[in-house]
Design a protein that fits this description.
Elements lengths: L7 H10 L6 H4 L8 H4 L4 H10 L4 H11 L3 H23 L31 H16 L8 H15 L14 E8 L13 H9 L3 E4 L2 E10 L3 H5 L2 H6 L8 E7 L5 E4 L1 E3 L1 E3 L10 E3 L11 E3 L4 H6 L7 E4 L2 E4 L7 E3 L8 E4 L6 H15 L8 E6 L15 H24 L1
Parallel strand pairs: 1-3, 1-4, 4-14, 5-10
Antiparallel strand pairs: 2-3, 5-14, 6-9, 7-8, 11-12, 11-13
Length: 426
Amino acid sequence: MNSIRVRLGVLGLALLTGFTTPTAANAAQAAPSPTVEEQRLGRAAPQEILRRSGFDTAAPRLARALEGARSYGEARRAVTREGARLWQRAVDRAQGRGPAEYEEREALPWKGGGGRREGLSRDDDRPLYWARLGMTRDVRTWEPEFGLTDGQRAALLDELERTSRGQDAIRYPHGKGMKRILLTGFDPFTLDRDIRISNPSGATALALDGTVIETADGPARVETAVFPVRWQDFTDGSVERTLRPHLPKVDLFTTVSQGRVGRFDIERTNGAWRGGFGDNETIGRTGTVPVSDPASQPQWTTTTLPYAAITAARTGRFPVYDNTSVTEIPAGGTESVVRPDGPTPGSTARAGGGGDYLSNEIAYRATLLRDRLGLHATLPGGHVHTPVLQFAAGNTSEVTDPEFVRNRLDIIAQVRAILTVAAETA
């Protein structure tokens, strides 16, 4: 990374005159420190994941590009290029493509402990997550000689987030004859419980991005994006900004996240409430989900996915449930009540079927956007919770094992099957 450099001539003049001439770098704000999320990068498991996947080259590549930047414009182009490259590299890796530099050696069988194993399976979403954090840390702490304002640094970080998450790369072929499906996933989370954690929804997004599902009604193209597990990004409207251009043009959408152990849930109802659980920055938020035009904001939104057909179909080894439960404060009441069959009229939301965390919030925001665009009656959309991705019994230290990989692959395959049923039914 660049450090602020002072030209010898300016330094000499300062020494001779007894005062300094302000430079753009001096005028700019000092670079901020790495975030809580970025600080986890130094731990052993993230470094092993990056090394064994080959994604340990991504952040240094961006750092070299920034080192060579001589203006904000050059820096922005470098960030855009390297962010998009990281997303495409992760998609290629997940789908078995890419030049030799993306390849990893086959993982050796896990034996319940012992020495480090070579390679990580291609379905792994964690290399993208940790590589992105290395890149955002470099942008956040970079101090170029030409100086950066707070606004410019924020714009670079926003560009890197969007491009490295596929949020600006959602594109469908023109013409008729192919259905369009939009799917979103999430980063890993609860990393202070287990730094090794993977998120099957993010892995699914990488595995399915740009793929075509063959249905009884013809082909369906899937496009995907991944979102952070951070309250502030949702407050800033990242979900609406990403989805708004595409919802009027797609035939089906679903937000996906990790839910409960051993089961899929099709969430029937989403609630307008944040429950306060800490995000990946260890920040909690409690209160009504903040959206534009809060005066017209409903307490609840509902799925328009064909949940009956999905739960009746044989889509994989995990059972799939139509989850109708919510937590509400009934009209005129003051205490929260669990309602197994959905909300009652006039009630206030305290948890949707998917809870009161960011999985519920992305479902609420996406379905509210669908409704505000006038698409409730015509666009199938909602939320799918996957099973929790588990390591093999007894694996408390290794970053992967065969059962962990099998579980993730089975979840990905079952999400694909669920999409197929939904597309055929819709």
